[in-house]
Write a structure and sequence with these properties.
- The complex is a heterodimer of chains A (148) and B (409).
- Chain A is mainly α and 148 residues long.
- Among the domains of chain A are: 46 residues; 57 residues, Cytochrome Bc1 Complex, Chain D, domain 2 (Orthogonal Bundle), CATH 1.10.760.
- In chain A, helix 1 crosses helix 2.
- The termini of chain A are far apart.
- The N terminus of chain A is likely disordered.
- By secondary structure, chain B is mostly beta strands.
- The longest helix of chain B has 13 residues.
- Chain B is globular, with a radius of gyration of 22 Å.
- Classes of the chains: A mainly alpha (148), B mainly beta (409).
- Chains A and B meet through helix 4, helix 6 and strand 3 of A and strand 1, strand 17 and strand 24 of B.
């Protein structure tokens, strides 16, 4: 509910869109005699081109939309791009090291009580994965190569 | 130009609503350069001034963008496809008529200031093809992950740079016998807006500064430098991390010690003096400055993901480069490194220019293949197949490049 209120304050238009969406989905499922599979709100199936939250990601910033999102947004991305967060992976200790580096060299302001929730958020959403010594070739878009 | 106008329009029409849209004020909004919009407003693909929409933007404040490998197939990298690695915010206004370069420092015999026309009229002009590669190119692959912009393979390019020899200018000022290093200062601004901080001020040993291929350049491929690549003046120092080739160049200091500017110390552009196990903590005092970049290559054609027929001819081509004298050989493998075949190899125009390689492939069995390429330089150094030595900041990844190919019956 708190999340909804934040959304409402931040992006009234998106909320209206989502409300409308819920309404349409709700009407649809009601007509189908409450078949729960069609009535489920499956965000992964939804292509929302407006700014908002899709699959747990805030589309405006690309950041995970979760507890402390607002704190991260207010403290981190005024100085640098959100992409600097989303493209990196580190443990809580590793993220703490980055904050220490920013304090020492980049004029990071005093985070005060916000530091702990920021570190919790980063460690939760941007944790490292073990990639081994060489990953497979990924995200290949296959195409037909014509011969000359 | 249209792009600039359009962006100005977007900026002026939308900036007032930024506070409400993001729910927070844009703290340093007044410091945004012309070509940068606040995060969230630049959803348009073509966000970078003077750059192709096909560039992969890793970071938009500061701007960092790389080139997909198949777009590095030109003999020289076009200006709109040349990678961008910014540490700070580029100057928003450049007055070429008033631009000056000052040379000074404890090991300079005098202090001199040159206008751009001084540089062009006083010294002999040179044009050299020089490959520049970011020290962190390939960082994305390191495990455990390394902090910073997660470069794939595209923080590299080779252009024809026109300017004067850095050594000619340094000798005109006079270099004392105790000179050890040079350092540069540019007109870019620290991302925090703190005017007392430099975003980056690196340099090279004096011997490297005096080498024939170290240039002060104002042209790239026969045109003015692109705004994001240092317009109107920059250093071009081949074979070293591209961070040594300072952009928006305003000042060079001749030092009697290793230059101690921003990003010369700590973990920046430095690797463990002794090799370490992946993930090991390394103290700053145990890190050494990166000098020469390792031998490396890229397959620039075809693009990964090619699907062909059994027996179909598939030409491959690519680029290879090194800090050594030259590339001696490039090989390819289609069986995960069990067999290697030699490619035909072009020559380089001058030292630090990349060399083209070509081969003609065909497959007589259907299946999934990977084409790997590895270069060997004149020092007999070759590229590893897996990741080279782990280091905390993920520099110097020269593991061989691979593309995926599917062969159908």
């Amino acid at each position: 509910m708190k999340l909804c209120m934040q959304l409402f304050n931040a992006r009234r238009g998106v909320v209206l869109f989502l409300l409308l969406f819920f309404f349409v989905v709700g009407m649809h499922s009601a007509c189908k005699n409450d078949q729960s599979e069609t009535g489920d709100m499956d965000l992964e199936q939804v292509d929302v081109s407006l700014d908002g939250v899709v699959n747990g990601i805030d589309t405006l910033t690309g950041l995970a939309y979760d507890e402390s999102f607002e704190i991260v947004r207010a403290n981190c991305i005024t100085c640098h791009s959100a992409k600097l967060i989303t493209q990196n992976r580190a443990t809580r200790e590793g993220w703490k090291g980055m904050l220490d580096w920013m304090r020492a060299t980049q004029n990071l302001h005093d985070l005060g009580d916000n530091e702990e929730p920021i570190l919790d958020y980063l460690a939760k959403h941007y944790a490292p994965e073990n990639k081994g010594r060489r990953v497979n070739i990924e995200d290949v878009e296959w195409y037909v190569l014509e011969s000359d | 130009m249209n792009e600039v106008k359009r962006r100005k329009f977007i900026k002026s029409s939308l900036l007032t609503s930024v506070t409400t849209a993001l729910g927070i004020p844009i703290v340093f909004g007044n410091l945004l350069p012309e070509n940068v919009l606040p995060i969230g407003l630049n959803n348009s693909q073509n966000t970078l001034l003077g750059k192709s929409a096909e560039m992969i933007v890793l970071n938009d404040r500061p701007i960092n963008a790389e080139t997909p490998p198949h777009l590095l197939n030109d003999r020289l990298t076009p200006n709109d496809l040349f990678f961008v690695r910014n540490n700070g915010l580029p100057p928003s206004k450049v007055n070429v008529a008033e631009w000056t370069l000052t040379i000074e420092g404890e090991s300079a015999k005098s202090k001199k200031t040159y206008s751009l026309s001084d540089l062009k009229s006083k010294f002999k002009e040179y044009s050299l093809e020089i490959t520049l590669e970011c020290g962190g190119n390939g960082r994305k692959e390191f495990n455990p992950p390394a902090k910073g912009n997660q470069w794939g393979t595209g923080a590299v390019g080779c252009a024809k740079w026109t300017g004067v020899r850095l050594s000619d200018v340094l000798q005109d000022v006079g270099v004392k016998n105790d000179a050890v290093y040079i350092g540069y200062y540019g007109a870019d601004k620290h991302v925090s807006g703190d005017k007392s901080k430099d975003p980056i001020s690196r340099g090279v040993p004096i011997e490297k500064a005096l080498a024939n291929e170290s240039l002060i350049a104002w042209q790239m491929n026969g045109e003015d430098l692109p705004a994001l690549n240092g317009y109107p003046l920059r250093l071009v120092i081949g074979g070293y991390p591209a961070s040594c080739s300072g952009k928006w160049l305003e000042r060079i200091v001749i030092r009697d010690q290793v230059h101690d500017g921003a990003k010369m110390g700590g973990q920046s552009y430095r690797v463990p003096c002794k090799t370490v196990a992946p993930g090991e903590k390394v103290r700053d005092e145990d890190m050494c400055i990166i000098e020469e970049m390792p031998v490396k290559s890229l397959i620039t054609s075809p693009k990964t993901g090619a699907t062909i027929k059994v027996g179909q001819q598939m030409p491959i081509s690519g680029k290879a480069w090194t800090a050594a004298q030259q590339i001696r050989q490039v090989e390819y493998s289609v069986d995960f490194g069990m067999n290697w075949k030699v490619c035909s190899l072009g020559s380089s125009t001058n030292r630090f220019a990349w060399q083209q390689f070509d081969a003609e492939l065909s497959f007589d069995k259907a299946g999934y293949y990977e084409v790997w390429a590895r270069a060997t330089d004149s020092n007999n150094k070759t590229q590893p197949i897996i990741l080279p030595g782990w280091n905390p900041k993920g520099y110097l990844n020269n593991a061989c490049h691979r593309i995926a190919v599917k062969v159908e019956a």
